[in-house]
Amino acid sequence: MLAAITQRLVRRANRMRPWKCFALAEKGGAAVEFALVAAPFLALLVALFQTALVFFAGRVLDVTTEEASRYILTGQAQQSNMTQAGFAAWVCSKTFALFNCNNFMINVQNYTDFASASTATPTLTFNNSGQVSNTWAWSPGNPGDIVVVQVMYQWPVVLGPLGFNLSNLSNGNRLLVSTAVFKNEPY
């Protein structure tokens, strides 16, 4: 009986026009559906991964800045005559392989009171070759001074699919800024 039903279906399919056979075919339907859904799904995954990586890098920079600022807060940086380059190297040693040590920008300023302390993100200026041309302050202060430590990093951003873009700089990177404000301890 199964053979008779199969023969009847084959005869009926042979009598149909080719376009009807194509319209009624169900083989490969999953592949077509996957092709329609795959591109947006992969774009969403790339955007999600990139966003998570940027937020993770920002959090690592925050923790590192907090730890590094204690080095100034307790007077260890001032008593050891640490330079801005030395402080940047110390910061880099705490961030493991996530950051390129040459791309850190350290801005340390001291003030007499909290009201005059500026925590605004500096505006970056670029030279003709695309490098940051700002000069950063290094003034860790004396005991009792208010100190603002800003550690900045240009995080490279890959342009995401479907117009997703996390960059906030003109060169296509994202500026990560971590700021710590404190009063130096008496040392």
Structural class: alpha+beta
Proportion of residues in extended strands = 5-15%
The main sheet orders its strands as 1-2-3
The total tally of domains equals 1
Give the % helix: 40-55%
Task: Characterize the biggest β-sheet.
Answer: 3 strands, antiparallel
Walkthrough of the structure:
The protein is an alpha+beta fold and 187 residues long. The protein has one domain. 43% of the residues lie in helices and 15% in strands. The protein contains 5 helices and 3 strands; from the N terminus they run H-H-H-H-H-E-E-E. The protein has helices at 2-15, 18-24, 29-73, 76-79, 84-93, and strands spanning 104-111, 146-155, 174-183. The protein has a 3-stranded antiparallel beta sheet with strand order 1-2-3, with helices on one face. The mean pLDDT is 86.
